[in-house]
Design brief:
Elements lengths: L2 E14 L2 E14 L3 E5 L6 H8 L8 E10 L2 E2 L5 H7 L4 E4 L3 H4 L6 H13 L3 H14 L5 H4 L9 H13 L5 E5 L7 H18 L2 E6 L2 H7 L2 E6 L2 E7 H6 L4 H9 L38 H5 L4 E3 L5 E3 L6 H8 L2
Bound molecules: iron/sulfur cluster and magnesium ion (MG).
The site of iron/sulfur cluster has 14 residues, from loops.
């Protein structure tokens, strides 16, 4: 499968008064052409920081990409300067956020806003840009697009505004779309419609999507593969089937039991006890040790090796590794 984006050993830190927060601690993954990869985890696990690093949107200071590579079509985005990045942002890699209102300018018509990106990146005439904007609004399911181009954001409902934001993100036909909690601000019915729209758009355009979310319901609906993040690391990655039906990391299992799903009764929900470790001084071993019902001595002492379970499925957990017992015997 063609790899459109490769993140390798990414480390990102933030300086604060309390010290350095190691928000992302060696994250690696590939994004394949035309797939949706979901990155899931609790708030503060580093999933948004990872996606903002890809767009090089980490405010520096206080944030800093410490090391790693982000290869987009073979080019390392970490090495690019601001003007090179501006050419890529929006044109090749686009991003949409949780709250559509913050992405839209209330004083400009939505036509102006959709056309702005394409005029800037593709050097089209206004007439051509307008045609592209109409096509985009049609693609995202806005009725009477010619008329609605002249309207302002406040004249649209929340769900419609998110469709407009998606149109803006897609107008330059990017290869990669990063969506950070794109449906969190919407009610459940609209949320389902927007997720369905992602699928349609992907089928029609072949865009690769990174979907950042804490919501496994969202993931179940659209993800091809799922990366589970905990305390700044990907602890398990697999196909949607593998993560939902054969989860191996105790944290993944905990997540699946702690969020409501359609096939589950409310009283079956079991929250994961405890809280994630603080990332000022992250543990040397597995960061889930304090909350894990299966924790062993080795877990505290050393970070687990990665175990490959299938082509696409891997996990970082000592339970999967026979060497755990051998290592324990070397501790005094
Ligand atoms: Fe639990 Fe140990 Fe596996 Fe971490 S490495 S998830 S503490 S069993
Ligand atoms: Mg976030």
């Amino acid at each position: 499968m063609e790899k459109i984006l490769q993140v390798k050993e990414l480390q990102v830190s933030f300086s604060t008064y309390g010290g350095e927060v190691k928000a992302v601690r060696g994250v690696s993954f590939d994004l394949h052409k035309g797939e949706t990869l979901a990155i899931v985890g609790e708030s503060g696990c580093g999933k948004s920081v990872t996606s903002q690093s890809i767009m090089r949107l980490i405010p520096n200071p206080p944030g800093k990409i410490i090391s790693g590579e982000i290869l987009f079509k073979g080019e390392d985005l970490i090495q690019l300067n601001e003007s090179e990045l501006r050419k890529i942002r929006g044109a090749n890699i686009s991003m949409i956020f949780q709250d559509p209102m913050t992405a839209l300018n209330p004083t400009l018509s939505i036509g102006e806003q959709i056309m702005e990106g394409i005029i800037q990146h593709k050097k089209l005439s206004r007439a051509e840009a307008k045609k592209a904007a109409v096509e985009m609004l049609t693609l995202v399911g806005i009725p009477s697009p010619e008329l609605r181009l002249k309207q302002y954001p406040h004249q649209f409902s929340g769900g419609m505004r998110q469709r407009i934001v998606i149109a803006m993100a897609l107008v330059c036909q990017p290869d990669v779309l990063i969506a950070d909690e794109p449906t969190t601000a919407l009610d459940v019915t609209i949320q389902a419609q927007i997720l369905e729209l992602f699928r349609e758009i992907q089928m029609k355009t072949g865009v690769s999507i990174i979907l950042i979310t804490h919501d496994l319901g969202v993931v179940a609906q659209v993800a091809d593969r799922i990366a589970v993040m905990y305390a700044g690391r990907i602890v398990e990655l697999g196909s949607r089937r593998e993560i939902f039906y054969r989860p191996q990391h105790p944290y993944t299992k905990g997540l699946l039991q702690s969020v409501p799903r359609l096939d589950m009764e409310r009283d079956e929900l079991v929250p994961i006890p405890g809280t994630p470790p603080d990332l000022f001084s992250p543990p040397v071993g597995c960061a889930f040790t304090a909350r894990c019902p299966y924790a062993m001595e080795v877990c505290d002492r050393a970070y687990p090796f990665r175990t490959q379970l299938s082509n696409h499925h891997y996990v970082d957990c000592w339970l999967q590794d026979e060497r755990a017992q051998v290592l324990v015997s070397t501790f005094v």
